[in-house]
């Protein structure tokens, strides 16, 4: 199968890293199925990509907080005769209130979005990838997966799960021609902090910690194509990740409790 006949499914495609992945893969001549909540933005992005790169691009507006969304996405792809050869599980968010004060419905939606839907989409795309003997999956983890846990946050635990499950899947599937990579970016210029209401805190961080989405995407795509199960993009992030992991658990707890930039 040629690149021209391969299709990438990208979640959270309307902004940030997801949008950068859409441009990167369109430039590489892959067809696209873009998924996000904001349909208007999806239409604008699809029109831009088709005009600029002359590729096939379909969209599907869905909220992955909804347990029915992964099945609906795959049903839509099937109705179009689309085979998913590449999966970019990018959609995500982070809670910003204390765990005990957050309604369970919001916590459940966070888990659905970043654990259950990610895992389910991986499971649903695999049969066709296995049949074709080729597939690429990138799951967005985070530098937070290597960091101490943050007070009140599910985020670090969720991203640690994504890091672990991606490696487990890669071990199982690589002999079948399917590569799975956990992409673990640090602070990346996007709308993430605006949506989470943490822009002021993020702006106080040193500029050396920040990357552009295009840099993250390039390193992530190179990694999955080379069969690397984990990608921490950027030299500074690599140093941070390698420095934190050997620390004793008690020290990690202390650092997470007292050095969380978003803890009030």
UniProtKB/TrEMBL annotation:
<dbReference type="Pfam" id="PF00106">
    <property type="entry name" value="adh_short"/>
</dbReference>
<comment type="similarity">
    <text>Belongs to the short-chain dehydrogenases/reductases (SDR) family.</text>
</comment>
<dbReference type="InterPro" id="IPR002347">
    <property type="entry name" value="SDR_fam"/>
</dbReference>
<dbReference type="GO" id="GO:0016491">
    <property type="term" value="F:oxidoreductase activity"/>
</dbReference>
<dbReference type="InterPro" id="IPR036291">
    <property type="entry name" value="NAD(P)-bd_dom_sf"/>
</dbReference>
<keyword id="KW-0560">Oxidoreductase</keyword>
<protein>
    <submittedName>
        <fullName>SDR family oxidoreductase</fullName>
    </submittedName>
</protein>
């Amino acid at each position: 199968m040629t690149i021209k006949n391969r299709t990438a499914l990208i979640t959270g495609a309307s902004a940030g890293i997801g949008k950068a992945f859409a441009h990167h893969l369109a430039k590489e001549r892959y067809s696209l199925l873009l998924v996000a909540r904001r349909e208007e933005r999806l239409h604008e992005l699809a029109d831009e990509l088709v005009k600029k790169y002359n590729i096939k691009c379909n969209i599907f507006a869905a909220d992955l907080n909804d347990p029915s969304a992964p099945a609906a996405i795959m049903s839509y792809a099937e109705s179009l005769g689309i085979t998913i050869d590449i999966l970019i599980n990018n959609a995500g968010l982070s809670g910003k209130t204390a765990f005990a004060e957050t309604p369970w419905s919001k916590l459940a939606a966070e888990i659905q979005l970043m654990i259950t839907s990610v895992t389910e989409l991986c499971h649903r795309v695999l049969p066709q990838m296995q049949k074709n003997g080729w597939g690429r999956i990138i799951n967005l983890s985070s530098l937070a997966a290597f960091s101490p846990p943050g007070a009140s946050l599910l985020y670090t635990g969720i991203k640690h799960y994504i890091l672990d499950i991606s490696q487990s899947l890669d071990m199982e599937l690589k002999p079948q021609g399917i590569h799975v990579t956990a992409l673990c970016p640090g602070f990346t210029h996007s709308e993430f902090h605006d949506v989470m209401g943490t822009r002021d805190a993020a702006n106080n961080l040193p500029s050396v910690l920040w990357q552009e989405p295009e840099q993250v995407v390039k390193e992530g795509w190179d990694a999955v194509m080379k069969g690397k199960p984990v990608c921490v993009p950027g030299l500074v992030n690599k140093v941070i990740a390698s420095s934190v992991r050997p620390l004793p658990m008690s020290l990690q707890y202390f650092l997470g409790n007292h050095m969380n930039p978003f803890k009030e």
